[in-house]
Amino acid sequence: MSTQPEKKPRKSRKPKDPDNPGRVSQFKTLFQVSVKQNPRIPVWMAAAFVVTFLVFTFVLHPIFHSYIFTGIVGVLFGLLSTVIVFGRLAERAAYGSLEGQAGGTGAALQALKRGWTYDQEPVAADAGRARRISEMSNAAMVFRAVGKPGVVLIGEGPVGASRKLLESERKRVTRVAGPEVPVHVLRVGAGEDTVKLADLAKTMKGLDKKLTDAEVSAVTKRLRALGTAKPPVPKGMDPRNAPRMDRKAMRGR
C-alpha cells in the first residue's frame, strides 16, 4: 500500500499594511499627484530620456565602436536623468499645491535638513472672522525655526495681519532668547518683500551662521519653555495635517 507524502500547507501571504505602502505604490501616487498639478511632466521626462540616450550613444560610439554597449549605457543614464527630472518637477508641483493653503509653511519647513529645529504648527495665528475651515485661507500665521543663523520667524496670510503677528512674535522671542541671538523675519507669498514657498528652505539656508550647535540647543530649550500662544484656529483645522512632501520619493529612492 503506497503512501503519498503529506503536502505542506502553503504559507499565507501577509496582508498589506495600508499605512505602509511599498516604494512602487508611493512612486505611483506621487506621479499621479504631480501630473495632476503639472500635466507636462511626462513630456519632460520623455525628453530627458531621449536626449540623454542620444547624447551618450553618439558620444561613446566612436570610442567603443559598439552600438550595443553604448545603447545599454545610454538607456541606464537616460533612466537616471528621467528620475532626476521627475524629482525636480515633482518637488515644484508639491510646492505649487501648498501655495495659498493655510499651514503650507509648516509643510515646506520639512525640506530643512540637520541643524534646524522647527515647529510644524504655528506659534501664533490670527483667524480674523473665520469660523469655518473653508475660510482659513485668510488666516495669518507665524511659524518658527531655530538654526545656526538664529531664530527665523515665517509669516503667511494677509499682509497687515501677518506683519503685526511677526513683529509681536519677534519682540517676544528677543525678550526670551536675548538680544545677542539674531531674529530673522520672513513672509511667504507672491508679492513684494516676500519669499516663494519653494524658495523658503533655500533662503533660510543662505542666512549667515552666527550660532554654534550648543547655542542653537540652548536657544531651542528657552523657546520651548516659553511655549506657544494658542492660535485662534476654528475647530477641525489642524495645521499639522497640511500636505507633507515625501522627499525620498521625489528623489526616486
Structure description:
The chain is an alpha+beta fold. It folds into 2 domains: 23-98, no CATH class; 104-244, no CATH class. The protein contains 8 helices and 5 strands; from the N terminus they run H-H-H-H-E-E-E-E-H-E-H-H-H. The protein has helices at residues 23-37, 41-64, 67-98, 104-108, 159-177, 200-205, 213-226, 247-250, and strands spanning 117-118, 124-126, 140-147, 150-156, 183-187. Strands 1, 2, 3, 4 and 5 form a 5-stranded mixed beta sheet that branches. Helix 1 crosses helix 3 (67-98) and helix 2 packs antiparallel against helix 3. The longest helix has 32 residues, at 67-98. The radius of gyration is 25 Å and the shape is elongated. Mean pLDDT is 76; it is low at 231-253. This is DUF4191 family protein. The chain crosses the membrane at residues 41-61, 67-87. Residues 237-253 have a biased composition (Basic and acidic residues).
Question: Which properties best describe this structure?
Answer:
253 residues, alpha+beta, disordered C terminus
Radius of gyration, whole Å: 25 Å
Bin the strand percentage.
Answer: 5-15%
Q: Measure the end-to-end span.
A: 58 Å
Q: Work out the helicity level.
A: 40-55%
Taking all residues together, what is the mean pLDDT?
Answer: 76
Give the assembly state of these chains.
single chain
Number of domains: 2
Number of helices: 8
Give the H and E element order: HHHHEEEEHEHHH
Number of strands: 5
Protein name: DUF4191 family protein
Biased composition (Basic and acidic residues): 237-253
Region (Disordered): 1-24, 225-253
Transmembrane segments: 41-61, 67-87
